[in-house]
Prior knowledge:
Helix content is 17%, strand content 38%. The chain is an alpha/beta fold. β7 and β8 form a beta hairpin.
Amino acid sequence: MNKPINWFEIPVADLERAQRFYEATFAIDMQREDMGPMRMALFPYAEPATGGALLACPDARPGDHGVVIYLDGGADLAVPLARAVAAGGTVLMPKTELSPEIGFIAMFADSEGNRIGLHSPGRGAQG
């Protein structure tokens, strides 16, 4: 196993709203793809990085008690946390240092009510 996560999907009720939220929070552009009843907005990535998407389909049920993924929050977690709040999200856990080796984490609720983690690497990096 080269990497523990190969792909992730964040369930959403309103794809357009969720896409605006994530594009604003991470200052990115997401590509849209439709596959039958599944509609997706893909996070930008380059192989061999892990890819993922927002997923809108009849079985997608966003919520605050499902799977938690940790997205790359960059060098300073305060930046995406502030963007998430400005885009309509809520901070659930402020920037918190786990250890100098592991780094920092934070958590927010997105526009759909999902809990999303952020991670900033350790080894002396500013989180």
